[in-house]
Amino acid sequence: MENIALVHDWLTTYGGQEAIVNVLFGLWPNMPVYTIIYDEEGECKNIVEGHEVYTSFIQKLPLAKRKYRTYLPLMPLAIEQLDVTGYDVVLSTHHAVSKGVLTTADQLHISYVNTPIRYAWNLYHEYMRDGFQGKISAGLARLVLHYIRIWDQQTANRVDVFIGNSHNVANRIWRVYRRKAEVIYPPVEVDKFQPASKKDDYYVTFSRLVPYKRVDLVVEAFTKMGKPLVVLGDGPDADKIKAIAGSNIEFLGYQPDDVVVDVLGRAKALVFAANEDFGITPVEGQASGCPVIAYGRGGALETVIDRETGLFFNEQTPQSLIKAVEEFENIQKNFKIEKLRYNASRFSTDRFKQEYEDLVNSSYDKFLRGELRSSD
User: Is residue 374 part of a domain?
Assistant: First the structure.
Protein backbone atom coordinates (compact mmCIF):
# COMPACT_ATOMS: atom_id res chain seq x y z
CA MET A 1 0.00 0.00 0.00
CA GLU A 2 1.76 3.15 -1.23
CA ASN A 3 -0.94 5.80 -1.76
CA ILE A 4 -1.06 6.81 1.89
CA ALA A 5 -0.68 10.08 3.82
CA LEU A 6 -0.14 11.01 7.46
CA VAL A 7 -1.82 13.89 9.32
CA HIS A 8 -0.19 15.03 12.58
CA ASP A 9 -1.20 17.95 14.80
CA TRP A 10 2.15 19.80 14.82
CA LEU A 11 5.83 19.00 14.40
CA THR A 12 7.64 21.33 16.76
CA THR A 13 9.04 19.36 19.70
CA TYR A 14 9.90 15.65 19.88
CA GLY A 15 7.93 13.52 22.32
CA GLY A 16 6.05 10.24 22.49
CA GLN A 17 3.63 11.25 19.73
CA GLU A 18 6.45 12.20 17.39
CA ALA A 19 8.15 8.87 18.17
CA ILE A 20 5.02 7.24 16.72
CA VAL A 21 5.38 9.39 13.59
CA ASN A 22 8.99 8.23 13.27
CA VAL A 23 7.95 4.57 13.44
CA LEU A 24 5.18 5.08 10.88
CA PHE A 25 7.70 6.66 8.51
CA GLY A 26 9.69 3.45 8.84
CA LEU A 27 6.66 1.42 7.76
CA TRP A 28 5.83 3.72 4.82
CA PRO A 29 9.09 5.46 3.78
CA ASN A 30 7.50 7.53 1.01
CA MET A 31 4.56 8.78 3.04
CA PRO A 32 4.03 12.58 3.09
CA VAL A 33 2.93 14.34 6.27
CA TYR A 34 0.33 17.08 6.63
CA THR A 35 0.54 19.21 9.75
CA ILE A 36 -0.59 22.57 11.11
CA ILE A 37 2.94 23.76 11.93
CA TYR A 38 6.42 22.43 11.21
CA ASP A 39 9.56 23.88 12.76
CA GLU A 40 12.23 23.13 10.15
CA GLU A 41 15.02 23.81 12.65
CA GLY A 42 13.34 22.08 15.60
CA GLU A 43 13.54 18.70 17.28
CA CYS A 44 11.56 16.91 14.53
CA LYS A 45 13.92 17.87 11.73
CA ASN A 46 15.73 14.52 11.61
CA ILE A 47 12.63 12.31 11.56
CA VAL A 48 10.92 14.36 8.85
CA GLU A 49 13.97 14.55 6.57
CA GLY A 50 13.23 12.93 3.22
CA HIS A 51 9.45 13.28 3.54
CA GLU A 52 7.24 15.85 1.88
CA VAL A 53 5.73 18.17 4.51
CA TYR A 54 2.58 20.22 3.90
CA THR A 55 1.59 22.87 6.45
CA SER A 56 -1.43 25.07 7.12
CA PHE A 57 -1.83 28.84 6.91
CA ILE A 58 -0.94 29.07 10.62
CA GLN A 59 2.67 28.27 9.62
CA LYS A 60 2.97 31.84 8.28
CA LEU A 61 1.47 33.62 11.30
CA PRO A 62 3.70 35.50 13.78
CA LEU A 63 5.61 33.32 16.30
CA ALA A 64 3.61 30.27 15.21
CA LYS A 65 6.51 27.83 15.64
CA ARG A 66 6.97 28.76 19.30
CA LYS A 67 3.57 30.05 20.40
CA TYR A 68 1.44 27.67 18.36
CA ARG A 69 -1.02 26.91 21.19
CA THR A 70 -2.17 30.52 21.11
CA TYR A 71 -3.62 29.75 17.67
CA LEU A 72 -5.85 26.95 19.01
CA PRO A 73 -9.08 28.79 17.98
CA LEU A 74 -7.88 28.71 14.34
CA MET A 75 -6.76 25.07 14.33
CA PRO A 76 -10.10 23.45 13.37
CA LEU A 77 -10.21 25.70 10.30
CA ALA A 78 -6.52 25.07 9.59
CA ILE A 79 -6.76 21.27 9.69
CA GLU A 80 -9.78 21.37 7.36
CA GLN A 81 -7.80 23.36 4.78
CA LEU A 82 -5.19 20.61 4.37
CA ASP A 83 -6.01 18.80 1.13
CA VAL A 84 -5.49 15.02 1.41
CA THR A 85 -8.03 14.04 -1.23
CA GLY A 86 -5.44 12.39 -3.48
CA TYR A 87 -4.79 9.43 -1.18
CA ASP A 88 -6.49 6.05 -0.72
CA VAL A 89 -5.63 5.87 2.99
CA VAL A 90 -5.23 8.71 5.50
CA LEU A 91 -3.62 8.03 8.86
CA SER A 92 -3.92 10.61 11.62
CA THR A 93 -2.01 10.72 14.88
CA HIS A 94 -4.29 12.73 17.11
CA HIS A 95 -4.15 14.56 20.40
CA ALA A 96 -5.63 17.91 19.35
CA VAL A 97 -7.31 18.39 15.95
CA SER A 98 -5.72 16.08 13.35
CA LYS A 99 -8.63 13.63 13.23
CA GLY A 100 -10.80 16.50 11.88
CA VAL A 101 -9.06 16.50 8.49
CA LEU A 102 -11.58 16.32 5.64
CA THR A 103 -11.72 13.05 3.71
CA THR A 104 -14.13 11.64 1.12
CA ALA A 105 -16.27 8.52 1.01
CA ASP A 106 -13.62 6.88 -1.21
CA GLN A 107 -10.88 7.24 1.40
CA LEU A 108 -10.13 5.18 4.50
CA HIS A 109 -9.30 7.31 7.56
CA ILE A 110 -7.63 5.57 10.53
CA SER A 111 -6.94 7.73 13.59
CA TYR A 112 -4.44 6.78 16.30
CA VAL A 113 -5.62 8.73 19.33
CA ASN A 114 -3.20 9.56 22.12
CA THR A 115 -6.09 11.39 23.81
CA PRO A 116 -9.12 13.46 22.88
CA ILE A 117 -7.86 17.03 23.25
CA ARG A 118 -7.01 17.04 26.94
CA TYR A 119 -7.37 20.74 27.71
CA ALA A 120 -10.93 20.69 26.38
CA TRP A 121 -12.02 17.45 28.05
CA ASN A 122 -10.46 15.47 30.89
CA LEU A 123 -8.05 18.19 32.10
CA TYR A 124 -10.27 21.18 31.34
CA HIS A 125 -10.71 22.33 34.95
CA GLU A 126 -7.02 21.81 35.77
CA TYR A 127 -5.98 23.95 32.80
CA MET A 128 -8.50 26.62 33.75
CA ARG A 129 -7.05 26.74 37.28
CA ASP A 130 -3.38 26.59 36.33
CA GLY A 131 -3.10 27.92 32.81
CA PHE A 132 -5.09 31.15 32.69
CA GLN A 133 -4.78 34.32 34.74
CA GLY A 134 -7.39 37.06 34.96
CA LYS A 135 -11.11 37.08 34.25
CA ILE A 136 -10.85 38.20 30.62
CA SER A 137 -8.41 35.51 29.47
CA ALA A 138 -10.25 32.85 31.47
CA GLY A 139 -13.56 33.91 29.95
CA LEU A 140 -12.16 33.76 26.43
CA ALA A 141 -10.62 30.37 27.18
CA ARG A 142 -13.96 28.98 28.32
CA LEU A 143 -15.63 30.20 25.14
CA VAL A 144 -12.92 28.79 22.86
CA LEU A 145 -12.81 25.41 24.58
CA HIS A 146 -16.60 25.14 24.47
CA TYR A 147 -16.41 25.64 20.71
CA ILE A 148 -13.53 23.11 20.46
CA ARG A 149 -15.58 20.48 22.31
CA ILE A 150 -18.52 20.87 19.93
CA TRP A 151 -16.24 20.68 16.87
CA ASP A 152 -14.30 17.74 18.31
CA GLN A 153 -17.43 15.65 18.81
CA GLN A 154 -18.87 16.51 15.40
CA THR A 155 -15.69 15.48 13.58
CA ALA A 156 -15.62 12.00 15.11
CA ASN A 157 -17.73 10.79 12.18
CA ARG A 158 -14.86 11.67 9.81
CA VAL A 159 -12.90 8.68 11.17
CA ASP A 160 -13.50 5.13 9.94
CA VAL A 161 -11.30 3.32 12.48
CA PHE A 162 -10.25 4.62 15.89
CA ILE A 163 -7.18 3.28 17.68
CA GLY A 164 -6.56 4.17 21.32
CA ASN A 165 -3.04 4.13 22.73
CA SER A 166 -4.39 2.32 25.82
CA HIS A 167 -7.63 0.94 27.22
CA ASN A 168 -7.71 4.10 29.31
CA VAL A 169 -7.85 6.22 26.14
CA ALA A 170 -10.24 3.80 24.39
CA ASN A 171 -12.66 4.36 27.27
CA ARG A 172 -12.21 8.11 26.85
CA ILE A 173 -12.90 7.81 23.10
CA TRP A 174 -16.15 6.04 23.89
CA ARG A 175 -17.16 8.64 26.47
CA VAL A 176 -16.38 11.63 24.22
CA TYR A 177 -17.13 10.31 20.71
CA ARG A 178 -19.34 7.27 21.41
CA ARG A 179 -17.11 5.22 19.11
CA LYS A 180 -15.42 1.90 19.80
CA ALA A 181 -11.64 1.85 19.46
CA GLU A 182 -9.01 -0.81 18.92
CA VAL A 183 -6.10 -0.66 21.38
CA ILE A 184 -2.47 -0.64 20.24
CA TYR A 185 0.05 0.42 22.86
CA PRO A 186 2.59 2.99 21.58
CA PRO A 187 6.16 1.98 20.69
CA VAL A 188 8.76 2.13 23.45
CA GLU A 189 12.48 1.71 22.71
CA VAL A 190 12.86 -0.82 25.50
CA ASP A 191 16.15 -2.22 24.13
CA LYS A 192 17.78 1.18 24.60
CA PHE A 193 17.47 0.90 28.39
CA GLN A 194 19.63 -1.33 30.57
CA PRO A 195 19.97 -1.78 34.35
CA ALA A 196 23.27 -0.73 35.92
CA SER A 197 25.49 -3.33 37.54
CA LYS A 198 24.95 -1.60 40.89
CA LYS A 199 22.05 0.47 42.18
CA ASP A 200 22.64 3.83 43.85
CA ASP A 201 20.71 5.24 46.79
CA TYR A 202 18.43 7.73 45.02
CA TYR A 203 14.97 7.94 43.50
CA VAL A 204 14.28 9.54 40.13
CA THR A 205 11.37 11.30 38.46
CA PHE A 206 11.52 11.95 34.72
CA SER A 207 9.05 14.29 33.04
CA ARG A 208 8.38 17.58 31.36
CA LEU A 209 7.81 20.11 34.14
CA VAL A 210 4.22 21.06 33.37
CA PRO A 211 1.29 21.16 35.82
CA TYR A 212 -0.52 17.90 35.05
CA LYS A 213 2.68 15.83 35.42
CA ARG A 214 2.59 16.68 39.17
CA VAL A 215 6.36 16.79 39.63
CA ASP A 216 5.64 19.43 42.29
CA LEU A 217 3.91 16.74 44.35
CA VAL A 218 6.94 14.43 44.07
CA VAL A 219 9.37 17.18 45.04
CA GLU A 220 7.24 18.23 48.00
CA ALA A 221 6.98 14.66 49.29
CA PHE A 222 10.70 13.97 48.99
CA THR A 223 11.60 17.32 50.56
CA LYS A 224 9.52 16.29 53.57
CA MET A 225 11.16 12.86 53.72
CA GLY A 226 14.69 14.15 53.11
CA LYS A 227 15.39 11.25 50.73
CA PRO A 228 17.58 11.85 47.66
CA LEU A 229 15.63 12.54 44.47
CA VAL A 230 16.94 13.27 40.96
CA VAL A 231 14.63 15.26 38.69
CA LEU A 232 15.13 14.75 34.94
CA GLY A 233 13.40 17.12 32.54
CA ASP A 234 12.62 20.77 32.03
CA GLY A 235 9.58 22.91 31.35
CA PRO A 236 7.63 26.05 32.24
CA ASP A 237 7.09 24.97 35.88
CA ALA A 238 10.82 24.51 36.57
CA ASP A 239 11.35 27.64 38.66
CA LYS A 240 8.17 27.10 40.67
CA ILE A 241 9.15 23.51 41.49
CA LYS A 242 12.74 24.41 42.37
CA ALA A 243 11.42 27.01 44.81
CA ILE A 244 9.79 24.32 46.99
CA ALA A 245 12.68 21.83 46.80
CA GLY A 246 14.99 20.93 49.66
CA SER A 247 18.73 20.39 49.39
CA ASN A 248 18.13 16.65 48.88
CA ILE A 249 16.60 17.30 45.44
CA GLU A 250 18.93 17.42 42.40
CA PHE A 251 17.64 18.97 39.18
CA LEU A 252 19.44 17.81 36.04
CA GLY A 253 17.14 19.51 33.52
CA TYR A 254 16.91 18.20 29.97
CA GLN A 255 19.48 15.48 29.29
CA PRO A 256 20.48 13.44 26.21
CA ASP A 257 19.49 9.80 25.94
CA ASP A 258 22.75 8.36 27.27
CA VAL A 259 22.42 10.33 30.52
CA VAL A 260 18.75 9.36 30.92
CA VAL A 261 19.63 5.68 30.40
CA ASP A 262 22.41 5.90 33.00
CA VAL A 263 20.33 7.75 35.62
CA LEU A 264 17.34 5.39 35.27
CA GLY A 265 19.57 2.32 35.32
CA ARG A 266 21.19 3.30 38.64
CA ALA A 267 18.07 4.55 40.46
CA LYS A 268 16.43 2.49 43.19
CA ALA A 269 12.93 3.44 41.93
CA LEU A 270 11.16 5.72 39.47
CA VAL A 271 8.42 7.96 40.88
CA PHE A 272 5.56 8.81 38.51
CA ALA A 273 2.75 11.06 39.79
CA ALA A 274 0.79 11.91 36.62
CA ASN A 275 -2.57 10.57 35.51
CA GLU A 276 -1.33 9.80 31.99
CA ASP A 277 -3.10 8.61 28.87
CA PHE A 278 -0.52 5.81 28.56
CA GLY A 279 2.79 6.97 30.02
CA ILE A 280 5.99 5.82 28.31
CA THR A 281 8.25 6.73 31.23
CA PRO A 282 7.11 3.89 33.56
CA VAL A 283 7.86 1.40 30.78
CA GLU A 284 11.32 2.91 30.26
CA GLY A 285 11.90 2.66 34.01
CA GLN A 286 11.00 -1.03 34.07
CA ALA A 287 13.20 -1.68 31.03
CA SER A 288 16.01 -0.13 33.12
CA GLY A 289 15.38 -2.60 35.94
CA CYS A 290 13.88 0.25 37.97
CA PRO A 291 10.65 -0.42 39.94
CA VAL A 292 7.94 2.22 39.54
CA ILE A 293 6.06 4.03 42.32
CA ALA A 294 3.08 5.39 40.37
CA TYR A 295 -0.19 7.17 40.90
CA GLY A 296 -2.79 4.43 40.53
CA ARG A 297 -4.84 5.97 37.72
CA GLY A 298 -4.68 6.12 33.94
CA GLY A 299 -2.20 4.29 31.78
CA ALA A 300 0.07 3.24 34.64
CA LEU A 301 -2.54 0.64 35.61
CA GLU A 302 -1.87 -1.04 32.24
CA THR A 303 1.93 -0.90 32.32
CA VAL A 304 2.84 -1.50 35.99
CA ILE A 305 2.03 -4.73 37.84
CA ASP A 306 1.28 -3.95 41.47
CA ARG A 307 3.89 -5.39 43.85
CA GLU A 308 5.65 -7.18 40.98
CA THR A 309 7.05 -4.31 38.91
CA GLY A 310 5.98 -1.41 41.10
CA LEU A 311 3.63 0.06 43.69
CA PHE A 312 0.66 2.39 43.39
CA PHE A 313 -0.37 5.31 45.58
CA ASN A 314 -4.07 6.17 45.60
CA GLU A 315 -4.19 9.96 45.96
CA GLN A 316 -2.23 12.76 44.32
CA THR A 317 -1.03 14.04 47.68
CA PRO A 318 2.43 14.09 49.31
CA GLN A 319 1.09 12.01 52.20
CA SER A 320 -0.13 9.22 49.92
CA LEU A 321 3.18 9.16 48.03
CA ILE A 322 5.21 9.16 51.26
CA LYS A 323 3.26 6.14 52.48
CA ALA A 324 3.97 4.30 49.18
CA VAL A 325 7.70 5.09 49.38
CA GLU A 326 7.84 3.75 52.93
CA GLU A 327 6.08 0.57 51.81
CA PHE A 328 8.45 0.22 48.85
CA GLU A 329 11.50 0.39 51.09
CA ASN A 330 10.11 -2.47 53.18
CA ILE A 331 9.65 -4.76 50.18
CA GLN A 332 12.14 -3.46 47.57
CA LYS A 333 14.12 -6.73 47.61
CA ASN A 334 11.05 -8.48 46.18
CA PHE A 335 11.35 -6.66 42.84
CA LYS A 336 13.32 -8.72 40.32
CA ILE A 337 15.07 -7.12 37.35
CA GLU A 338 14.11 -10.02 35.07
CA LYS A 339 10.42 -9.52 35.83
CA LEU A 340 10.67 -5.77 35.30
CA ARG A 341 12.35 -6.12 31.92
CA TYR A 342 10.00 -8.88 30.77
CA ASN A 343 6.99 -6.72 31.52
CA ALA A 344 8.55 -3.77 29.64
CA SER A 345 9.14 -5.98 26.58
CA ARG A 346 5.36 -6.15 26.01
CA PHE A 347 5.54 -2.57 24.73
CA SER A 348 8.38 -2.86 22.21
CA THR A 349 8.62 -0.97 18.92
CA ASP A 350 8.58 -4.21 16.88
CA ARG A 351 5.31 -5.22 18.52
CA PHE A 352 3.78 -1.83 17.67
CA LYS A 353 4.87 -2.04 14.04
CA GLN A 354 3.34 -5.47 13.58
CA GLU A 355 0.04 -4.65 15.26
CA TYR A 356 -0.38 -1.30 13.52
CA GLU A 357 0.48 -2.55 10.03
CA ASP A 358 -1.80 -5.58 10.44
CA LEU A 359 -4.69 -3.34 11.50
CA VAL A 360 -4.20 -0.95 8.57
CA ASN A 361 -4.09 -3.82 6.07
CA SER A 362 -7.11 -5.64 7.50
CA SER A 363 -9.11 -2.39 7.72
CA TYR A 364 -8.29 -1.52 4.11
CA ASP A 365 -9.40 -4.98 2.94
CA LYS A 366 -12.71 -4.56 4.79
CA PHE A 367 -13.08 -1.05 3.39
CA LEU A 368 -12.64 -2.26 -0.19
CA ARG A 369 -15.24 -4.99 0.39
CA GLY A 370 -17.68 -2.46 1.82
CA GLU A 371 -17.73 -4.22 5.18
CA LEU A 372 -16.11 -1.61 7.38
CA ARG A 373 -18.71 1.12 7.57
CA SER A 374 -21.73 -1.16 7.31
CA SER A 375 -20.61 -3.11 10.39
CA ASP A 376 -19.62 -0.10 12.54
Answer: no
